Amino acid sequence: MTLWTANEAAAATGGRAQGDWAVSGLSIDTRTIAPGDMFVALKAARDGHDFVAQALEKGAGAALVSRIPEGVPADAPLLIVDDVQAGLEALGKASRARTDAKVVAVTGSVGKTSTKEMLARMLLDQGRTHAAVASYNNHWGVPLTLARMPRDAEYAVIEIGMNHPGEIAPLAIQARPHVAMVTTVAAVHLEAFENVEGIAREKAAIMEGLEPGGVAVLNADVAEAHVLRDVASDLGVSARWFGESASDYTLHSAGIEGEETVARATANGREVELHIQSLGAHFAMNALGALACVEALGADPVKAAGSLALWSPVKGRGVREAVRLESGEITLLDDSYNANPTSMAAALAVLAATPGQGRRIAYVGDMKELGPQEVELHAGLADLDAVKGIDKIHCIGPLMRALHEALPEGKRGGWYQTSAEAVPGLAGEIQGGDIVLAKGSLSMALAKIVDGIREMGQSGPNSENA
């Protein structure tokens, strides 16, 4: 299916189309580019113009560039613009303008990606649904997601993130959502903000992009809920609240029942039961918020609750799998993609509550971008109730030394500077029956721990995303 023709793309960007071409997708990575994609030559660690020739050799239908790169034929299919980033944003805005899709945008300190994926699954059975892939939530990820949107999409789910003040509002304005959700507010990116209240105001800025008559879905349980409420009031935005303390979408209970998390709630006056194929009360809270978004979009919430039961986490974000060792089967909880104090607490709680007779072991890595309180926040993990239910915690990274020293001696595992240093000792620390969690900020490469455990045995055919 054609996504952009040369004439359409030139009109959208004000650029010059070279050749008469049509593309079926957009890509920024030659490693994953598909034939017929438009290659977008963004400049990041490397200049994308250096890879245009390779993209065309792999079958790219065209390339978005600001100049004709060296080694590219003069008659190559190109869209030439003054600035590639601006050109991508223009394509995204044009794509958003030409669709009748109902759009929901999601932000929050924790849970953006999993909530986005939940929403996409809940809406998929009710219409053609487009959603961001992976964590494409920044200055290039949002316009790329918008520019990839099929013109006949009926629903779209856009993830919006930030690292510094002033980043969310421009992205929300590009997305122009009908519904905007804030999953939670937590001590993340504190090195760029004076306090958590500042983070709350930045998250609340997603409401600046709402379409007229749009709805905000907000977490009533966060300490900074008053900030969210004030921003909604100042903008004249209608808000729907979810959480244990909310009156609109009230979470009554959430617990692990067998192989799933079951949440019981009141949703807009109706009693509902949500079944989530992943362990953790934090998933239940975000699922309830997602249900509020579905209803605000005008979709069927009952059908959406049924579709939710078919959702499972993506790699590195709470995926559970069985790994067979000679000494027996272990349960691996792969939550290695990222970490902050809130998500780390949730992951440790999941580990402690996961059913099983074996030991519960955690490999945890540094949590980044926490500002002046970083040492205190790492050490404070030792005081979590969940720690009482965990047998051994191995710590990775200079900041996690603070947790290592704060842990009771009986629960204190090894301390390692890097994940790679911990891998050789895995076989001596893990045995059949164990339940093992791996979690840390992406730069700490806890995926090496996950891969090391997998290499100890063989993931069974009954491995599941729970």
Automatic annotation (TrEMBL):
Residues 326-441 form the Mur ligase C-terminal domain. Residues 106-294 form the Mur ligase central domain. SUPFAM superfamilies: MurD-like peptide ligases, catalytic domain, MurD-like peptide ligases, peptide-binding domain, MurE/MurF N-terminal domain. Residues 23-89 form the Mur ligase N-terminal catalytic domain. GO terms for molecular function: ligase activity. The keyword Cell wall biogenesis/degradation applies. ATP binds at G108, S109, V110, G111, K112, T113, S114. It is found in: Cytoplasm. Gene3D superfamilies: Mur ligase, C-terminal domain, Mur-like, catalytic domain, MurE/MurF, N-terminal domain. Pathway: Cell wall biogenesis; peptidoglycan biosynthesis. Keywords: ATP-binding, Cell cycle, Cell division, Cell shape, Cell wall biogenesis/degradation, Cytoplasm, Ligase, Nucleotide-binding, Peptidoglycan synthesis. It catalyses: D-alanyl-D-alanine + UDP-N-acetyl-alpha-D-muramoyl-L-alanyl-gamma-D-glutamyl-meso-2,6-diaminopimelate + ATP = UDP-N-acetyl-alpha-D-muramoyl-L-alanyl-gamma-D-glutamyl-meso-2,6-diaminopimeloyl-D-alanyl-D-alanine + ADP + phosphate + H(+). Its EC number is 6.3.2.10. Coiled coil: none annotated. Its main location: cytoplasm. Involved in cell wall formation. Catalyzes the final step in the synthesis of UDP-N-acetylmuramoyl-pentapeptide, the precursor of murein. Belongs to the MurCDEF family. MurF subfamily. This is UDP-N-acetylmuramoyl-tripeptide--D-alanyl-D-alanine ligase.
